[in-house]
Structures are given as structure tokens and as C-alpha cells.
Write a structure and sequence with these properties.
By secondary structure, this protein is of the alpha+beta class. 31% of the residues lie in helices and 20% in strands.
């Protein structure tokens, strides 16, 4: 035994420095692309484009650029050109490389780490351009500076020279001579330009070795992002050119002109919301395959220029009748912050610096009850808010509450009744706002930049909102008296409705399994006495809830909103399930108990209807709800009392003698068949078919006609013909054991048919 090594000793003796891999330069990016762009699917593909566009936008934020052109070439490459200052072409002292090569081949290198070139930027990591270069099969860059045009080329991040058979048709497959290691590549001067002309042009081909086969370019996502940027940077013109679309469309193609210009607040169709397009439910393409998406479905050139900034943006986002004009809050304040700075020797040091926070907020109230708040730091969207949104909302509620309490008699509220205190939901109902701040080196919570964490921003935004909004809502500012009265009347009315609804629920609350507890405040119940026909709609999100309230028949239809995906109860304990707010609310509202104590005769509703969006997330939410019903309220499924609503995917507006009539379809296949049928019958229709991306996009009449009215809706009843088989499927798909689920997906992937989802 003395001469025998243990397993640990043997492993240690076989593990030495030769086993260590050292990835140099951009090789680490190609080895682990997900660390830099998140995923290698469609979102990663689009992320690369954002990195290049954001560099040009940063030039605009610095006041050095007013025109960006994004070109989608027919060969699948993408080019971004700007008239900014141009990437520096001189030699960087530390690396002895040209500025162009440093920016495109070195991680964490760029002017955004210094203090003189950029005061506010979208990207701070200094990895954007170099990462895109590493993940491209080819990247070409041209820089106009000092009266010359300089050019460099790269293959998978490595500098070199391509020999194209036709310089007008560059290709990643052309012969390439790689520059020898550690030998600087000199920029080639390929032309002359006027001395005052500057700018940068980057064209790249995404590397198919990196991105998976399902990665697709999303044209609509690009347009939404470009439009958003044009709002946030007033005076910046952005052109999108799709060379896949012919320069001149045939007169009968229905594609319209080959160019479209958006220079003011655009007229919005019902289906234009700026959100990401979702895939068709049946998996069929909406048109011929096209690597850049939407061939001939959009103009060849689209131009975006908005001088009104956030004011135009709020006008664009607004739905419903306006209760007020767009109000504008602007200003700047300084704050102190400790930060790490690079000194003249290239070393980091801690220093306290003075920063400036520029605040730009636009807001208005509409007759709707949905709340739309879009927030940004520089040009980066922060969908989950952060310090700037917290400061804005705190001041907004404070000033609105103060204005109403100062006129309590006028707005019929009692200051002695604590239930009549104005709450945030009362103030934000129908609010449309865009909250933007510009600061140097913003601190985000997490790598996704969803939440702004720079604490000093909150009091600055709060102070400016208190000062300026306070004058507006109190009517002290000239021209705001009538509007402020309308806004305050809406807020006070919302508060009174909330109090009345709460009282009504307490008075009319029916017997339920949790008899000692009141119904959840978010339940919009139906009138009592209709248990034999009562329906409970479980609604995905507050946006759809607002429309559903107006669409329902309150005599027998109740609404319970849930916030996204509920707990997967198959993996959770009973205690965890009961402690989950969404799960416990559903059990409480249905009122028949749970588990062994479930008594279907005590159920307060005859039907339980899951009403979710017709997309992948909606399907996931339905699965999670069904898991809850199957595990804790199985009798509902066994007795056929659980349903899935079937909202339409498209709305076709008829024209001519049928004007005012609409046809709804529920899949891409049905849409194509219906359009062909209308063409055959020579029935005219608007070629701009509305594509619903969520229930919140429908107005009340549309939602009632298609999804809620028993006379015209379509429901799918959830059945359980074989309980034992169903239990096995639920255990497999929703259980703790991952390997069997993974193997099941692999074995059945080829046989998967999207058209059978919910069939």
C-alpha cells in the first residue's frame, strides 16, 4: 500500500502547466461568444449590429455626427457608416499599433475609458467593435480623416489583406493573406477626400461558424431600434437601406414606394407598437425565405429624423384620447462620484470627480388606464427602471397627491379617510412617459443594463420633477390650469373607483376555501348569484387586463391578472406553493380548496379560462397554470372546466362594399388561405394586415368579439382522457429530473409540429 497513489495524488501528478490553455487576443471571444453577446442565436446576431450602431450613436451624443446609414447588403453583410470624427489612424504609443487596429482587435480599448472624448455613451465596456470583429468571417473598415481614406480588413478578428476578384463585390471567401503575428499592420491609403470630411464605415459578414442555424436577422427589430434612437437623439438622421428590395417596385406589387421618410411624429397603425415581432404560431414563414427578413414587405430606404426628441416619442407611444398635452421636464444638475481613472502612466487610480446629470422627461395622460413608461440612460433602454424612474415616480405621486389634497373638496375626497389617499396606481393610470438621463459612466445592476444603479441620479430627477411638474400640476405654470384640472380629475376619479371596487368586493365576497381572508385586491370579480355560468379569466399582465375590463360582461365574467410566469409547482413544495402570491391567489379566488381538500362543488366559477398571448411565452404560462391545476385542483380538468382562450393572430380589414368589416385568422396558414379566398372572390382588403403580438394590442371591442364574448369567441377545452398518461407527461416535462426531459426533446425534435400546440 505504501507505493500506491490515491486517485487525488494521481490526478495531481498528471496536472501541470502544460495543461493550461492561454487564449490570446480575440480567441477568447470566439471560444466563449456567449460571455460577450449573450447568445449565438438571433438575439446575438442583432446584438452585434447594436454594438456597431451604438458606436456611431456615441459620436452623435458627443456632437460629432448627425447622419448614420445602415445598409443591408444583398450578400448578407451589413454596413454602418457615419459622418463622425473617424476612428483615430495615428499610432497608439503603448501598443505601437494604429488606432484602428487597437479599436478592432483589443478588448477593453477605446476612448470611452478616458474623460475627454465622450461625456455620455451607450457602451462603456470597450469590447463592442472588437467582439463583432472576432465573430465575423470578414470585417472591412474605412476611415475618412486628414484628407485621406484609410482601409483595413480582418478575417475572424485577424488583420490582413483580401484579394477580391471584383473590388465592388467583396467576399469572405476571397483569398486572404494574414498579417504575421506581432507585426503591426499599416493602414492603406485607398483614396483622397476633402480635408474637412470625416467618418467611419464598417462592413461585416457574421461568421456561420459562430452563429447557429436558427439565427435570423430581424428587420422589424432594427427599424424599432433605429426609430427609438432617432427620438432619443434629436437631429440625428438615420437611414436604413435594404438592398434586397429592388430600387423600383412593380406598380401592382402592393409594396408601395421604394423609400419612406419619418421626419415627424409618424401616423401609427393599430399594430405598430415597436415591440419585437414574434414567430408565427404554426411555424410557417410569412413569405419566401429571406436572410434579412421581409423582402418586398417594406421600402428599400427608410429615413428617420425627429427634432422633437422625447416629446415626439411620447406622442408616438400614446393611445386613446389625450387628457393633457405632452409635458416636458428638463434640466441638469451636478453630483460628486468616486471613480477609477487611468493616469498618464496607464495605471488606475481612485479620484472624486464632478459629474453632470442631464434629465429629459416627457409625459402625458390619456383616457386609457394602461401605464407606459419607457426609460433610458444615454441611449440604453432600462426596461426595469432604476434610480431615474424611482426619482421621477416618487416626485410625481408626491406632487399629484399634494395638488388633490389642497383641493379635497373640489375633488370630493375626505382627508380623514386613509382609504382615500392617492396611491401610485391612481397617478400612473393612463400615464405615458419617457424618462431619460445622460451621465458619464453609468452604473447598471447586472450585465444586461436593465436597471440603473447610480444612486446620485435619483435625488436629481426627483428634485427637477418636484420643481417643474409641481408648477404644472398645480396650475401655477401659465397654460397648464385647464390641463392640470383634467389630469387631477382623472386621478381622483381613479382613486374613488378603486375604493368603491374594494368595498364592493368586501360586501359581495362569496364563500371560498380561505373564508377568513378577503379576495385579492387585483381580482375584478363578477356579480354574485351567477355561479352556474360564472367565468374566471386568468389574464397575462396588466396591459391586457385594462382592455379585458372594458371588454368583459361583468355580470358573469371575472378577471384575475397574473404577473408573467407563475411558480412551477411540480418542482416546489406545498409550503412554497402556498407562499407564492400568484398561486395562492388563484386557489383563493376559485374557492374550492386545494389538494385532497379540493371540493369542486364549492368552486365559484363554472369555467376557468387561461387568456394569454398567442406566443411562446403565453404557451409557457399556460403550461405552468395547467401544472398548478393538475397538481392541486385536478377535478377542474377532469370535469372539463378549464379552458384556453384562442385569440386571433391577424385582423384583415375589408374595403369597398365591405368596408367596416373585419376577418380574423388564427395561424399563418389560415391567413394565406383567407387572403387567397378573398382574392378569388374579388373582395377588397387593406394589404397592411394587422398582426397581433399580444392581447394588450386589441381594443375592447376586438377582444370581446374574438376572445371573450360567448357568442363569437373560440375556446379550447382542456381534457384529461387518460389521467395516468397525463401524470407521466407532467412528471417528464415539469419534474426535477433533467436527463429524461432532455432525451425526450432530442428524440422528438424532428417530429415536432408547431401547428399542434394547444390543438
Amino acid at each position: 500500500m505504501a507505493g500506491r497513489k490515491t486517485i487525488g495524488q494521481q490526478a495531481a501528478s498528471e496536472y501541470s502547466a502544460k495543461d493550461l490553455a492561454v487564449l490570446e487576443g480575440l480567441d477568447a471571444v470566439r471560444k466563449r461568444p456567449g460571455m460577450y453577446i449573450g447568445t449565438t442565436d438571433s438575439m446575438g446576431l442583432m446584438h452585434c449590429l447594436w454594438e456597431i450602431i451604438d458606436n456611431s450613436v456615441d459620436e452623435a451624443l458627443a456632437g460629432a455626427c448627425d447622419h448614420i446609414i445602415v445598409t443591408l447588403h444583398a450578400d448578407g453583410s451589413i454596413e454602418v457608416a457615419d459622418n463622425g470624427r473617424g476612428i483615430p489612424v495615428d499610432i497608439e504609443p503603448k501598443t505601437k499599433l494604429s488606432g484602428v487596429e487597437v479599436v478592432l482587435t483589443r478588448l477593453h480599448a477605446g476612448a470611452k475609458f478616458g474623460e475627454s472624448s465622450y461625456n455620455a455613451t451607450g457602451g462603456l465596456h470597450g469590447v463592442g467593435s472588437s467582439v463583432v470583429n472576432a465573430l465575423s468571417s470578414r470585417l472591412d473598415v474605412e476611415v475618412d480623416r486628414d484628407g485621406h481614406t484609410y482601409r483595413m480588413e480582418f478575417r475572424q478578428g485577424h488583420p490582413g489583406v483580401y484579394t477580391d476578384a471584383d473590388p465592388e463585390l467583396p467576399s469572405p471567401s476571397s483569398p486572404f493573406k494574414k498579417t504575421r503575428k506581432n507585426r503591426p499592420t499599416e493602414l492603406r491609403v485607398v483614396g483622397d477626400v476633402p480635408a474637412g470630411r470625416t467618418g467611419t464605415r464598417i462592413r461585416y459578414w457574421s461568421d456561420p461558424e459562430i452563429f447557429n442555424d436558427n439565427a435570423e436577422f430581424d428587420y422589424q427589430m432594427l427599424i424599432d431600434r433605429v426609430r427609438q434612437t432617432s427620438f432619443l437623439v434629436p437631429g440625428l438622421r438615420i437611414d436604413v437601406v435594404d438592398e434586397n428590395v429592388p430600387e423600383k417596385e412593380p406598380a401592382d406589387s402592393g409594396a408601395g414606394n421604394d423609400a419612406a421618410t419619418e421626419t415627424a411624429v409618424p401616423a401609427k397603425s393599430d399594430d405598430e407598437t415597436g415591440s419585437e415581432q414574434t414567430a408565427p404560431a404554426d411555424g410557417t414563414p410569412s413569405q419566401e425565405p429571406d436572410p434579412l427578413g421581409g423582402r418586398n414587405a417594406h421600402p428599400r430606404v427608410q429615413e428617420f429624423l425627429h427634432e422633437g426628441g422625447t416629446v415626439d416619442f411620447v406622442d408616438f407611444l400614446s393611445h386613446g384620447e389625450p387628457v393633457s398635452d405632452v409635458w416636458h421636464i428638463t434640466g441638469a444638475r451636478e453630483y460628486r462620484e468616486e471613480t477609477q481613472q487611468v493616469n498618464e502612466n496607464g495605471d488606475l487610480r481612485t479620484a472624486e470627480v464632478t459629474r453632470t446629470c442631464d434629465v429629459d422627461i416627457a409625459l402625458r395622460w390619456t383616457s386609457d388606464y394602461d401605464t407606459i413608461i419607457r426609460s433610458f440612460v444615454n441611449v440604453v433602454e432600462t426596461p426595469d427602471g432604476g434610480m431615474h424612474v424611482d426619482g421621477f415616480l416618487n416626485a410625481l405621486v408626491k406632487q399629484a397627491r399634494k395638488a388633490i389634497e389642497n383641493n379635497a373638496r373640489k375633488y370630493k375626497i375626505s382627508l380623514k379617510d386613509p382609504k382615500q389617499r392617492i396611491e401610485r396606481d391612481d397617478v400612473t393610470a393612463g400615464l405615458v412617459a419617457v424618462v431619460t438621463v445622460r451621465i458619464a459612466e453609468p452604473q447598471f445592476q447586472g450585465q444586461t443594463k436593465d436597471v440603473l444603479g447610480t444612486a446620485q441620479v435619483k435625488p436629481i430627477v426627483s428634485r427637477l420633477t418636484n420643481e417643474q411638474f409641481g408648477e404644472m400640476i398645480s396650475g401655477k405654470k401659465r397654460g397648464f390650469k385647464t390641463q392640470s384640472e383634467q389630469v387631477l380629475d382623472k386621478i381622483a376619479g381613479g382613486m374613488r373607483a378603486r375604493v368603491r371596487a374594494r368595498k364592493a368586493k368586501e360586501v359581495t365576497r362569496r364563500k371560498n376555501a380561505l373564508e377568513s381572508a378577503s379576495m385579492p385586491a387585483k381580482l375584478s370579480d363578477c356579480l354574485p348569484g351567477n355561479d352556474d355560468i360564472a367565468e374566471l379569466f386568468i389574464v397575462e399582465g396588466d396591459s391586457a387586463l385594462g382592455t379585458a375590463k372594458a371588454a368583459r360582461n361583468s355580470l358573469f365574467q371575472a378577471l384575475l391578472p397574473i404577473r408573467g410566469k407563475i411558480l412551477n409547482v411540480r418542482k416546489a413544495s406545498l409550503t412554497q406553493m402556498l407562499n407564492n402570491a400568484e398561486c395562492s391567489a388563484i386557489i383563493q379566488v376559485i374557492g374550492a380548496g386545494s389538494g385532497r381538500e379540493f371540493d369542486i362543488s364549492q368552486a365559484r366559477y363554472n369555467k376557468v379560462i387561461m387568456m394569454t398571448d398567442a406566443d411562446v411565452d403565453g404557451a409557457h404560462i399556460r403550461i405552468l397554470l395547467l401544472t398548478l391545476f393538475y397538481r392541486y385542483m385536478r377535478q377542474l380538468i377532469e370535469n372539463g372546466r378549464v379552458y384556453a382562450a384562442v385569440p386571433p393572430l391577424h385582423r384583415i380589414a375589408l374595403t369597398g362594399s365591405h368596408k367596416g368589416e373585419f376577418v380574423y385568422t388564427y395561424s399563418e396558414t389560415e391567413l394565406r388561405g383567407k387572403l387567397a379566398d378573398l382574392d378569388a372572390k374579388r373582395i377588397g382588403y387593406d394589404p397592411d394586415v394587422q398582426r397581433y403580438k399580444g392581447l394588450g394590442e386589441m381594443d375592447a371591442d376586438q377582444l370581446a368579439d374574438t376572445t371573450m364574448d360567448p357568442r363569437s369567441r373560440l375556446l379550447r377545452r382542456i381534457r384529461m382522457e387518460d389521467a395516468e398518461k397525463a401524470a407521466g407527461v407532467f412528471d417528464l416535462l415539469m419534474g426535477d429530473e433533467v436527463p429524461p426531459r432532455r432525451q425526450y426533446i432530442i428524440d422528438n425534435a424532428d417530429a415536432f409540429d408547431r401547428t399542434q400546440i394547444d390543438a
